[in-house]
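pasting Reverse transcriptase Ty1/copia-type domain-containing protein for the record, 107 residues
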Amino acid sequence: MVDRTKLEKDLQGKIVDPTHYRGMIGSLMYLTSSRPDLVFAVCMCARYQARPIEKHLHAVKRIFRYLRGTTNMGLWYSKDTIIALTAYADVDHAGCQDTRRSTYGSA
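structre below
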């Protein structure tokens, strides 16, 4: 979802309302516990909460459009079942466009 837009720190873009942007990110962070497919995209957008620009806002809106089309997806945690957990991780060395630091994700 965010991969196509290549989010980076842009000091020239038009600044949007940070309070509204943080509220949107907060709502999406709440969903990540039951929607692991959102974790990477939401965390990428959350990095720019201090000074969000229009490009970042468009990426968040794209996530909401994705949610509208995938309302039946997600994890359901039942208290009566035993859950076996499998974890996966991925690392991209020098993957951050702003700092050239390694980025990683796990599920």
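The helical segments are 18-31, 39-46, 54-69.
The longest strand covers residues 89-92.
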